[in-house]
Q: What sequence folds into this?
């Protein structure tokens, strides 16, 4: 196993409920270190760019409206197999299907407002990290 980094976003449903610290605690309890973090408000256009892979999906407009509806916390998580580890810690996309103890089971509200985003491959982690952070923003 190798130490990796992955891109995480705490989504607007979670910032609205003031639970970013609770979510960060789950990362840290599971061995993921927050090595960069910033709270920002995405524009609709930035949300569309970030989720461009989903441009053809039926929920794209709704998703990008939601992601630009309030502040988000963008962050880089570091740890052993961090990409896969974070996907496990997040839980399934639909909180109704997420395993007990996962962030989405604990805090997700529905299939859209599911509290967190996490990169799904090391390649996408690199692309998504560069979308928000310069190398000098990250201190491991
Ligand atoms: P994940 O975030 O688990 O990687 P996807 O990449 O499939 O899931 O989808 C990206 C995001 O789009 C989801 O996290 C969720 O916010 C939203 N989404 C996914 N499926 C739906 C759906 N059926 N209806 C509404 N929003 C959805
Ligand atoms: Mg995805």
A:
């Amino acid at each position: 196993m190798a130490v990796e980094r992955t891109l995480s976003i705490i989504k607007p449903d979670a910032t609205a409920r003031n639970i970013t610290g609770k979510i960060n605690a789950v990362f840290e309890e599971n061995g993921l270190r927050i090595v960069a973090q910033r709270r920002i408000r995405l524009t609709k256009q930035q949300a569309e760019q970030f989720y461009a892979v989903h441009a053809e999906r039926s929920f794209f407009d709704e998703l990008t409206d939601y992601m630009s509806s309030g502040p988000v916390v963008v962050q880089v998580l570091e740890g052993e197999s961090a990409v896969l580890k974070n996907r496990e810690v997040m839980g399934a996309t639909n909180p109704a299907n997420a395993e007990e103890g996962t962030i989405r089971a604990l805090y997700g509200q529905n299939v859209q407002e599911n509290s967190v985003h996490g990169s799904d491959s090391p390649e996408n982690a690199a692309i998504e990290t560069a979308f928000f952070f310069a190398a000098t923003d990250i201190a491991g």
Observations:
- The beta strands are 3-10, 33-40, 72-80, 116-118.
- The chain has seven helices and four strands.
- The first strand starts at residue 3 and ends at 10.
